[in-house]
Amino acid sequence: MKIAFLGLGNMGAPMARNLVAAGHDLIGFDAQLTAVDGIELAASATDAVADAEAVITMLPNGDILRQVYAHIVPAAPAGSLFVDCTTADVDSAVAAAREAEQAGHLALDAPVSGGVAGAQAGTLTFMVGGSPAAFERAAPLLDTMGQRAIACGPSGSGQAAKICNNMLLGITMAGTCEAIALADSLGLDRQAFFDVVSTSSGQCWSVNTYCPMPGIGPASPADNDYKPGFAAELMLKDLDLSQKAAGASGTATPLGATASDLYRAFVEGTGTGKDFSAILKHIEAMKRRS
Fold this sequence. Notes:
The protein has about 290 residues and is an alpha/beta fold. The protein contains twelve helices and nine strands. It has helices at about 10-20, 45-50, 60-70, 90-100, 115-120, 130-145, 155-185, 190-195, 205-210, 230-250, 255-270, 280-285; strands at about 1-5, 25-30, 40, 55, 80-85, 105-110, 110-115, 125-130, 145-155. Strands 1, 2, 3, 4, 5, 6, 7, 8 and 9 form a nine-stranded mixed beta sheet that branches. The longest helix is centred in the middle third of the chain and has 29 residues, at about 155-185. Keywords: Branched-chain amino acid catabolism, NAD, Oxidoreductase.
C-alpha cells in the first residue's frame, strides 16, 4: 500500500519503519526533521499525501491535528484512508474525521497504548473509532504496527477509550506510589511488599508490570534512572484531556482531578524528562498535612 506517515517522532518513526519492513511503499514528513533513518521524506505534508492510499498521522495534540488535516485532506487522492494515531481531545478527533469523510475519504481515530517500546516491537494496542468499513481497510496496517486493534465505536470513540484508560493508569500509578511511600515509612521491606501486593487484591499493571521501585519486579524505567518509557509530561497531557472531557460531559472524576494535580506539580517541579512512574520520588518528598 502507498502510505504517507506524518509525524516521525519517538512513536511515529518506529511505527513507520515497521510498515516499511512489511513491504509498504511509505513516504514520511515531519516539520521538525530533515532526515529520519530508514524513511524517505517528502518536502511537505501535502507532497507526502499526494499519491497516498493511506495517510497516518501521529501528532502532538488536537490543535495541530486540525491544522494539518486542513492542509492534507484536500491534497489526498479521492477515497484515501486517514488513520490518526494522535492522542487528542475527542472533539478534535471527531472534527478531523468529519472533515476527511466529507471530502470522500475513510477516517479513523486510532490512539495507541504501549509506548516507545511497543512502537519499536510492533506490539501496540490501537483503540479505534470510526466506521466498520474504515476499520476493515486499516486492519492490515494496524496488525503490522501492533498486536491488537479494538473497534470502540464511531468517530471519537478511540480517543474516549484512550483518555479513560490513561486516567485510570495515572490514578493507579499515583496510588501505587502512595502505598510504597507508606510501606517504606512503616518499615516494610520493598521486596516483601511487592511479593504481597503483586499476588493480592492490590495487584495492578502499575505494580506487576511497571513497578516504580528500582530493582523490584520486572525490568521497568525505574531500573534505568526513570528514563521515559512514558514521560510524565505525556501523562499530564492525558490527565488534562480526561478532565476536559469530564467537564464537558458533567462527569465527576475526583480521583482523576487529584491525579492531574499531582502530575502537574511533579512536572512543574522535577518531573520533566522523567518517566511517569518517577512520581514515586515526588510523593515520597511530600509532607502530610494534618
